């Protein structure tokens, strides 16, 4: 399951990177306030989902920490789009940084097992 989560995370990261690259090539970008509004609305929807999906706390993970992580990811996305951070939240899950760094290796160089 862990390996699957790493692959999913890497795949989602590639989608995000590609979308940001496409955005950078737009000649007529939407107004910054609209982009920020879209990101902030997405954050609120994600937080609502987390509260429903995690009604009880798990060891090292709860709805508050997940909400912080959602804000952290949103700030990272805004930065990739060339915009200022909205939340200034620190990543509460250091292990997610490790998954991100490991994702830089070639898929076929990783051993199964």
From TrEMBL:
Domain of life: Eukaryota
InterPro entries listed in its UniProt record: Ferritin-like_SF, RNR-like, RNR_small_fam
SUPFAM superfamilies tied to this protein: Ferritin-like
Official protein name in the record: Uncharacterized protein
Protein's organism: Micromonas pusilla (Picoplanktonic green alga)
Pfam families assigned to the protein according to its UniProt record, in alphabetical order: Ribonuc_red_sm
Family annotation (Gene3D superfamilies): Ribonucleotide Reductase, subunit A
GO molecular function: oxidoreductase activity
Biological processes annotated in GO: deoxyribonucleotide biosynthetic process
